[in-house]
From TrEMBL:
Organism: Thanatephorus cucumeris (strain AG1-IB / isolate 7/3/14)
Keywords: Coiled coil
Name of the featured protein: Dynactin protein
Regions annotated as coiled coil: 47-222
Gene: dynactin
């Protein structure tokens, strides 16, 4: 009987040590689970905010894509206008060059006619001063030549005036085309800057959406983990409640009782 009690005492003391160790471990696990539960609850609580933010970003992304498409269409139109303006400017420059060449040729011809006219006027004056009967026919011929040269001179002057007017008009048109082209090119530069800014906004929105999707996935995982942790916490609580039924003080009192019996 005594040996049986001794054996029972040893077993009870061993169970007591195991139970105390398990109770300590379970208490630690419960504290860890409670911390994880609190974190998971916080994560799950922000899920609606994340979903709302994601929806807002997706709406903004759609708007940005529409703006990008509009800017691309406008840039394409401006590019076509720029090409057309460049071609027109090239034609204007060519017309100006031709007009300048014609004006230069007319001026040279006019100078040549002036020189011939001056020579013939000198010859005519010499014939008049000679006063011979033979020179009368020559003088008449020279006078006719002078009149023809004077008429030709007047026609050249009129042609030169017209050429200069055309050149001036061409130059004015050229300046207008250049100013218009510069405005269009300036508009293209501004549109290009806006286009690049929109591309940057698009890339930023894509990155934010991907980040929010990851956070939402984490929130869904946290929600699942919250359920699992809650179940596990309940299980550990039940285990601890069961362990409390075998209170170490109660076991210790049993051991003391066994010790008293053994002394008797």
């Amino acid at each position: 009987m005594f040996s049986f009690l001794v054996k029972e005492e040893v077993e009870l003391r061993a169970k007591l040590r195991v139970l105390e160790t398990k109770r300590t471990e379970d208490a630690r696990l419960i504290r860890e689970l409670e911390t994880k539960l609190a974190d998971a609850e916080v994560f799950v609580s922000i899920r609606p905010k994340l979903q709302a933010k994601l929806q807002a970003l997706q709406t903004e992304l759609s708007q940005t894509k529409r703006e990008l498409a509009d800017q691309q269409a406008e840039m394409s139109t401006l590019d076509e206008k720029g090409v057309e303006a460049s071609e027109q400017l090239e034609m204007v420059m060519l017309d100006k060059e031709v007009a300048e060449e014609r004006a230069e040729a007319a001026e040279l011809e006019l100078e040549s006619v002036k020189e011939k006219l001056a020579e013939m006027e000198i010859e005519l004056q010499a014939l008049k001063e000679g006063g011979t009967s033979e020179g009368g026919g020559v003088e008449a011929k020279k006078s006719l030549d002078v009149l023809q040269l004077e008429k030709h001179n007047e026609r050249l002057k009129e042609a030169l005036i017209k050429l200069r007017q055309i050149t001036q008009e061409t130059d004015t048109e050229q300046k207008r085309k250049i100013a218009e082209l510069e405005r269009e090119l300036s508009g293209i530069d501004e549109l290009q800057a806006g286009y690049e800014e929109t591309l940057s906004k698009l890339a930023n929105a894509d990155a934010q959406i991907e980040d929010l999707k990851i956070q939402l996935d984490d929130a869904l995982g946290a929600e699942d983990m919250l359920v699992q942790l809650t179940d596990r916490n309940l299980q550990l609580s039940e285990v601890c409640e069961g362990a409390l039924l075998l209170d170490p003080l109660f076991l210790l009192s049993l051991l003391c009782a066994y010790d008293t019996d053994s002394l008797r």
